[in-house]
Write a structure and sequence with these properties.
Layout lengths: L1 H5 L1 H9 L2 H4 L8 H26 L8 H12 L7 H25 L1
Length: 109
């Protein structure tokens, strides 16, 4: 009942519209394309620099962070055939776990 009352009209309007309004035509080909379209070249440069800088400052101590970062950069360049943001969360959890592991090993050493 909640779906019917709150979302059904929006859902029907969306899919009853012309194909150009709800097809993959309006989707970017990658996360980089989406960032470029939303924030421009300066925005994507700042995003990449800050994001990579955060993990790069820990890179010397990390054991598997570089392969995870490279894999993540490759996945973000792929077409939207799956939800990349779920992969980003998984990759970030692995990176933070590696940071925590190395920090706790440093304390115990």
């Amino acid at each position: 009942p909640d779906f019917e009352k709150n979302h059904l009209d929006l859902y029907l309007y969306y899919f009853a519209s012309h194909d150009g309004k709800h097809s993959v035509i309006n989707s970017p080909n990658s996360v980089y394309g989406q960032l470029w379209a939303e924030y421009g070249l300066a925005g994507i440069a700042v995003f990449i620099l800050l994001y990579l800088w955060f993990f790069a400052k820990h890179l010397k101590r990390l054991s598997y962070a570089l392969p995870v970062l490279l894999l993540l950069c490759g996945v973000l360049g792929m077409d939207y055939w799956f939800e990349q943001l779920s992969i980003v969360v998984l990759a970030e959890l692995l990176l933070f776990l590696n940071i925590k592991e190395t920090a706790s090993n440093k304390v115990h050493d």
